[in-house]
Amino acid sequence: MQLQRIIRIVLSLGIVAVFVLYTGGKVPIQLFDRLENLSYDFRLRLTLPNTVDEKIVILDIDERSLAEVGRWPWPRDVLARIVDNLFDTYGAKAVGFDIVFAERDESSGLNVLNDLAQGPLRTDQAFLDQYQALKPQLENDRIFAESLADRRVVMGFAFLRTREEAEANRIGSLPEKVGDIEQYWTDRIPLFENIDYTANLEVLQAAAYSGGFFDNPSVDEDGIFRRVPLLQVYDGKLYQSLAMAMVRAGSESPDVTIEVWDDSRSGYYAVEGVRLGDYSIPVDGTSAILVPYRGTRKHFPYVSMIDVLNGNADPAVLKDRLILVGTTAAGLLDLRSTPVEEVFPGVEVHANIISGILEQRIKHRPQYAIGFELVVELLVGLVMSFLLPFISPLLTLLVTVLAFAGIIGITLFAWVTWDLVLPTAALLLLTLSIFVFHMSYGFFVESRGKRQLAHLFGQYVPPELVDEMSQHPQEVTLEGQSREMTVLFSDVRGFTGISEGLDPRELTQLMNAFLTPMTQIIHKHRGTIDKYMGDAIMSFWGAPLDDPMHARNALLAAFEMNAKLIELQPEFKRKNWPEIRIGIGLNTGVMNVGNMGSEFRMAYTCLGDAVNLGSRLEGLTKQYGVTLIVSESTKHSVPEFEYRELDVVRVKGKDKPVTIYEPVGPVEDIAKSLRSELRRFHKALVAFRSQEWDIAEREVFSLSQENKVCAVYGLYLDRIMHYRNNPPGSDWDGVFTHETK
Predict the structure, then answer these.
(1) In which domain, by residue range, is 597 found?
(2) Are residues 498 and 414 in the same domain?
(3) Are strands 344-345 and 536-541 parallel, antiparallel or unpaired?
(4) CA 464, 465, 471: angle at the middle one, nearest 5?
(5) What letter would DSSP give residue 330?
(6) CA distances (Å), 191 to each of 160, 163, 238, 599, in order?
(7) Domain count along the chain
(8) Which of 37, 314, 323, 566 is the most exposed place for a label (fewest CB within 10 A)?
(9) What is the CATH classification number for the domain harbouring 507?
(10) For 402-439, what is each residue's pLDDT tens digit?
(11) How do residues 108-149 score in pLDDT, each as one tens digit?
(12) pTM over 0.70
């Protein structure tokens, strides 16, 4: 085995070791954690049900309610009327408050009357008689408590985990516990433990059916609500979350059981789930549940609080429903960041959990997922480490793509079929790291052979440039460089049909007769031939020698190539050769250029996103029925030419849209009529992108009648008809996405 291959295998195994140590918890790497969270978010958004669950209703303290009743908090007698209406008028099954009532209600003025009755007016019998008559009507907390009694109402509260919070906020009374932590192996169950709480007034909690916490100690480091615990510990006792309490309130309060995996032989002991009667809920070791979001906000019925207070709500929406009282008003600060939406009502997080439990569609990241990750890391890592040093770059790419596809396929199948959340990001990153390492090693270490300057560049550039390079060798390098350049791609239209109609000898003669003058034109304008790809030519300007006018020279070459092709047609016809038409794409941008290849064959070439875009632009000439397309960067580099804007497109392989143009000639050579036509078409494009279909259609149709050979006008007429029948939506950016090259 060659030394270079041994080095590659050893270094590759080192990469595998880093990932194995991370998965085993020996080396924390926050980047990997962040990527794993992002992969979870992607899968979640990809498979959202996007359906409305009508079993759970959000009773919203919205801006309209605040405008009519007044700022929050409202008097408790108002809340009592709302609770009475929910149960007596609308027949709610259970009501949960995503709110804590930790302070007494003093809005009625009763405290003032108490002070008067015990002070200046304590001897005024008439006042005392009125005071005793009014007092029961002003005890808002008692009135609210009476409305809660004998009804399935769940009160929300919050635990405190730091000493600073506890010293400032200990208030209220806790609801009943749901169990004792002592009944489990406490030092092996890492449930969240708290030192204090902010809870509801004792009179309110005692009257309520139950209570549940709404704080979330499981928020990830990026502040996103992916997990919420179902249980927390205080003073050795277990307390339930608001969502879990609502499920129990709506289903005859089933007992709570923590399901643990206890393997005495291996010593493995971990929380696997929480059981509520018939409901089995998969959780992680801290009893946290992965929130089963249905979609973005408003995937549950919303009812304004003021409509319930005034009796204007739809009874069909509220009857036999689980009602969550919360707020979407921005001023009340109950908005959260979630994987599905950056600003999401906190009350709807609880609604999603309740819905997921009732429908038994909770995703689960089990403890054995770590074992799965380790096995796949070792399998993929070892196979790629020992295989890639012995195969070609193309096969290396194929193996990597297959590994990617296998990992993504398995994890998505487990997600959809079994609701399992298997690790994905680290496995994909390991595969990519090994691939990049071997490709980079092969390029930077093993492909170091250099050729003599004239021998190398004489194949690609005209002799005049070779002479110039020889005179200034310090300006030329074979090493990779990043430069702003212009790339040209040209391709023969319908070459397959042409080749099938000629015998091999004639085809060779035809291609030589075509490629020779095209190459001469490129050389004439200081271009470098990168390669011939059958009937296609790739060339670039700006290397190996710097050329400040690279975009202009490339554009002049493109125009002359088209003109030369027209001149060649009579000669081709005399020889009974078919007519040749070409498409040309030009792009200007930063590219990597240098001597690249293998120890057996080197080539001076350029690559990068700007090069790929040039190739895509050549392919678009067929779509728009033009001979030449340039990018906006090329247009800006050659302002002395006039252009027809064709479109704003997102080409295959790129997310960022680009504006594409058809050069029509030097500005001084353009007739007034053509200038007018271009201005009219550009105005039509503005109307088109503003979705003013009628205006755009009238202008484009008029242009198509005046210039019947311009295929672009027909293309836009078809698009206008399509979008009129299938409106793209208010957020449409006017970009057309091409799915093919």
Answers:
(1) 453-610
(2) no
(3) unpaired
(4) 95
(5) G
(6) 14, 18, 9, 59
(7) 3
(8) 566
(9) 3.30.70.1230
(10) 999 999 999 999 999 999 999 999 999 999 999 999 88
(11) 555 655 555 566 666 666 655 565 656 566 678 888 999 999
(12) no
